[in-house]
């Protein structure tokens, strides 16, 4: 695998001197908007989000996390901004870790200020200048459990802490407010004696738990993440300023990112892609890189394969299909068996899309077509640099594309995109949008495509 195993966005929750990330992890500062997208371009197996910016800098976007998962990356969140995003996105497959995540997920917490704090610069190790509410809650829960303070005192102190602005909230300001409000004096004194040594840093505990969870996953050599949602290519996403940093735009002279751009050119050729995909699949089976799916395809997958076969050949009526089977020297039972096998092959290809991508590019090299498509990919990258998609209607993009291929429009575009090794139809639509504007530019310039 190229690059690092895991990228970890972390800051004040667990300073570098205390984090002890294992080999293969790359530590990065707290995440801002666009950082997770950029990390996705580097193709790590996992991304962990602990800390992120709340104010002054646009926060990490939900959609870039969803994008990362559609690229096969396992995304974890805990402790701070990561816990917030994981609570919001765990139904889509983001992995939340720790008590803070669980509290947000279950509705016990909802406010951003629960995890927000003011801190010093990275160069000094992010020294905390305020106290997060989640740490105050954890410390008071512990104090009640050991009989240091009463539960009534805990409730009063939480209320006093909660009304304070997060940037100025500290144990000193909370206890000073408690003395002014005549909170049980012996409890306040007991807490003063216990702090700061006896405070519970729940954010730090959860951050460590996230790192452990990521290590456990990576030790199993997991398959790429396979989300069950469709990524929607919206206008807001298309217009994100950092979206120009797509795979291939930073490496037009070679490397993994550029191979992905060349592979996209092949995907636009439709049937040619599937020919090379079958060869790549055969090679992968032959060398033992992949194996047959453990479970057979379900009836719905087989029916989709049958529908695609019939549409491609114009076998619209049952009698047409039976006549085809007779001419091919088989019967309907034989046809159904072949369709089940084809569906199994498609399942194997989709389950191993990331592994097959490398072998498909190798087959492209062996075929002699790599150089031509690489030149086209380079030219497209240069021509489209800084250009925004036209956002043409999806149905028009699809019609034009399949007319150019001289192929019938597939019955299920989601299935077709998956068969191309793409994570969703949104990515397929992006390829078509780029191809649409590139083709128009080349036509206007009178150049060959």
Strand content: under 5%
Shape: elongated
Major sheet characteristics = 5 strands, parallel
Topology, number of strands: 5
- Nearest-integer average pLDDT: 87
The number of helical runs is 21
Radius of gyration: 27 Å
- Number of domains as seen in the coordinates: 3
Please estimate the helix content: 55-70%
Low-confidence stretches at least 5 residues in length (pLDDT < 50)?
245-256
Report the order of strands and helices.
Answer: EHEHEHEHEHHHHHHHHHHHHHHHHH
What is the structural class? mainly alpha
Report how far apart the termini are. 33 Å
Instruction: Give the strand order of the largest sheet, numbering strands 1, 2, ... along the chain.
Output: 2-1-3-4-5
In short:
This protein is mainly alpha-helical. Helices cover 55% and strands 4% of the residues.
């Amino acid at each position: 695998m190229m690059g690092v195993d895991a990228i970890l966005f972390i800051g004040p929750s667990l300073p570098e001197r205390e984090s002890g990330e294992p080999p293969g992890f790359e530590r990065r500062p707290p995440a801002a908007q666009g950082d997770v997208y950029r990390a996705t371009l580097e193709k790590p197996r996992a991304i962990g989000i602990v800390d992120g910016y709340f104010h002054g800098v646009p926060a990490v976007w939900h959609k870039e996390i969803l994008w990362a998962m559609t690229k096969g990356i396992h995304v974890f969140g805990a402790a701070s901004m990561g816990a917030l995003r994981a609570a919001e996105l765990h139904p889509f497959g983001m992995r939340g870790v720790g008590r803070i995540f669980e509290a947000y997920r279950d509705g016990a917490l909802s406010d951003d200020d629960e995890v927000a704090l003011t801190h010093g610069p990275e160069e000094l190790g992010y020294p905390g200048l305020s106290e997060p509410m989640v740490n105050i809650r954890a410390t008071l829960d512990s104090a009640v459990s050991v009989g240091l303070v009463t539960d009534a005192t805990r409730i009063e102190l939480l209320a006093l802490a909660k009304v304070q602005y997060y940037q100025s909230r500290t144990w000193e300001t909370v206890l000073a407010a408690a003395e002014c409000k005549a909170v049980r004096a012996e409890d306040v004194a007991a807490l003063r004696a216990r702090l700061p040594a006896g405070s519970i840093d729940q954010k730090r505990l959860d951050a460590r738990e996230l790192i452990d969870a990521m290590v456990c996953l990576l030790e199993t050599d997991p398959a790429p993440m396979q989300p069950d949602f469709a990524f929607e290519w919206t206008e807001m996403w298309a217009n994100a300023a950092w979206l120009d940093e797509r795979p291939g735009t930073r490496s037009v002279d070679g490397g993994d990112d550029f191979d992905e751009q060349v592979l996209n050119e092949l995907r636009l050729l439709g049937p040619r892609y599937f020919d090379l995909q079958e060869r790549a699949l055969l090679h992968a089976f032959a060398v033992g890189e992949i194996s047959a799916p453990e479970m057979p395809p379900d009836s719905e997958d087989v029916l989709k394969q049958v529908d695609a076969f019939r549409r491609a050949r114009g076998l619209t009526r049952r009698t047409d299909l039976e006549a085809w089977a007779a001419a091919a020297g088989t019967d309907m039972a034989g046809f159904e068996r072949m369709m089940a096998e084809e569906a199994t092959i498609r399942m194997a290809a989709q389950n191993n899309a990331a592994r097959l991508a490398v072998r498909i590019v190798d087959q492209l090299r062996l075929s002699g077509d790599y150089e031509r498509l690489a030149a086209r990919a380079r030219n497209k990258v240069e021509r489209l640099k800084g250009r925004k998609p036209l956002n043409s209607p999806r149905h028009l993009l699809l019609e034009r594309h399949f007319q150019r291929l001289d192929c019938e429009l597939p019955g299920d575009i989601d299935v077709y995109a998956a068969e191309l090794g793409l994570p969703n139809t949104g990515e397929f639509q992006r390829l078509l949008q780029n191809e649409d504007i590139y083709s128009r530019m080349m036509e206007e310039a009178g150049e060959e495509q």
